[in-house]
Amino acid sequence: MTKPDASVSNSYINREISWLQFNARVLQEAADEAVPLIERLRFLGIFSNNLDEFFKVRYATVKRIVEAGKGAKNELGGIKAKELLEIITQIVINQQSESLDILHEIGNKLKEENIHLINETQIDSGQHEFIKEYFLKEVSPALVTIILNDEVVLPNLKDSAAYLAVRMLMPGDKKQFALIEIPKSVNRFVVLPKQGDKFFIIAVDDLLRHCLSDIFNIFDYKSISAHMIKITRDGELDFESDLSKSFIDKLSDSVKHREVGEPVRFVYDKTIHKDTLQFLMSKMGINETDSIIPGGRYHNRRDYMGFPSLGRTDLLYDKIEALPVKGLSLQDSILKSISKKDYLLHAPYQTFSYIVKFLREAALDPTVKTIKITIYRLAQISHIASSLINAAINGKSVTVSIELRARFDEQANINYAKQMEEVGVNLIFGVAGLKVHSKMCVIEREEGKKTRRYGFISTGNFNESTAKIYTDYTLFTANQKILKDVDKIFEFFKTNYKINKYKHLIVSPHYTKKEVFNLIDKEIENVRQGKEGLIRLKMNSISSYDMVDKLYEASRAGVKIQMIVRGLCCLIPGVPGMSENIEVISVVDKFLEHSRLYIFGNNGDPKVYISSADWMTRNIENRVEVSCPIYDQDVKQEIIDTYNICWADNVKARILNDSQENEYRRNNDEKIRSQYAIYEYYQKKLD
Q1: What angle do CA 499, 500, 501 make, to 5 degrees?
Q2: Does residue 128 carry a catalytic annotation?
Q3: Which positions make up the binding site for ATP?
Q4: Which residues take part in binding ATP (predicted)?
Q5: 299, 437, 504, 510: the active-site residue
């Protein structure tokens, strides 16, 4: 495989910078006046939540590289690690400033809708009485208040919790500092009594500012003030070597330890007193490799994801009802339908209930003997887990490969793992050195004297909550050849020293790069023979330099490449001599684009795969991932149709290029907002 033209000084976009540009696209949705007003606030919350996770994981990783005394220039796309930390901090400061401007604008727009966000200086007498009672009954019992002085060691502040840093000026101009932890058990936004047609909402932080005199009434202060701070900690899990503990117990302890990991970001209200800031930074041991972000009055803006709707449906996205899949019924046997042909479920346009129905039916069917499934992220209340527990109670042999290290969702998985263990489910905690990220299920059913397999393979997690907002494909199939390969993967989980061969599935970590390269080479060969070469991809992220280089090679050979990449993209499209035949767009809208899809033109007879794998090094080399071929012609056409709709988006699509400016794709064609157009596509299929 040839490398990119040496004249190109930099062939890749740094992954951290690319990811921040993705989050800028989320911020664009918050700024978009065409987005319903309360939804704009929620996009601000998503932007903030994304940033928290970025600092816990990506910034923390780069910081560890710096502290190890390494530059890692080659691994970081041509930027030294220390320089990258400075670039990240500056980008985030600019984005935070922009987000504050957007928040201010949304606040003014809300006033026009008679929704008033008030602070502690705007409370009238009637509201004062309501707030005092609310504080005493709901907030005060949950408060943790820490009195600070030079002698007392500051307790470890919780990761991503918000605190009010309190400064009291005492007689003789002495200063007394304190911290109030804003309780997560209390709603961030308190809806005050309505006045006529006007709504009033106060943030609990401002409610606390109003009640400072009640909290600190034992102190004889001359003045008192409170400013918000937040610390973000390294989210990496550290495992103990205690051999007497089970893996579940070790992981539980590690999740708790994350709360006191090394600090990586410190955000503070830029109007805070300098002496308060210096005192806190000294106490917390904040140093030059941490990202120090001056911000506005309010942090933890992720809480805006839960901003109250107040019954104002006109300020929200139109609610869509998940559609049925034509040919499948929730009232009849789903296994009987699948035995005749393959079906595709495309969430959230179609209801996730078919997956739960499949497992519930398998749990009750006396002829079903075994159920095997991989689980990556479970919902807090999971019907998937309940169905598997039900199956085990009914005497089925149930095997669950559950990935307890699914970042930030470990606790839900741990809780259900313990419940499943209690009823005799055979639990497999991944593979040594690998995460199990594939999404698949296979059951065995006795039919006469034969055993027949049924199953499903998905691009997304088997999670009822995220299935309402993540776009994902799930293939239901009784194709015995595909399901035999699925069964082999479960054999690998048990005997992972033995590497199986697969006739149909493309499986990481052993085969994905090789098989995908073969498919790309076929398109290159087609071009050399005067035929069409076409590759169409949809994924969350692409950061593997090997995969990027291979696409550059295909582009230089004349293969046309279309890519829909929601998140980070280290590939630079449209560069003469390197990637002039590659186009990349990103769609950010109401739903989170999550499906992974590969289409290879194959000279007019497309090869189509759905996959759990993004083209990142971790997915290709350090995880168990599955890409599944689509053999059913109806399902194949459906996937191509929905890809075409997404590719044609000229409302919510952004063009990705080397400028990284997130320009919207605009043309004179009929307006196509792909997520709404795909829903209409499925509505028409039901006619």
Answers
A1: 130
A2: no
A3: 50, 470, 566, 594
A4: 50, 470, 566, 594
A5: 437
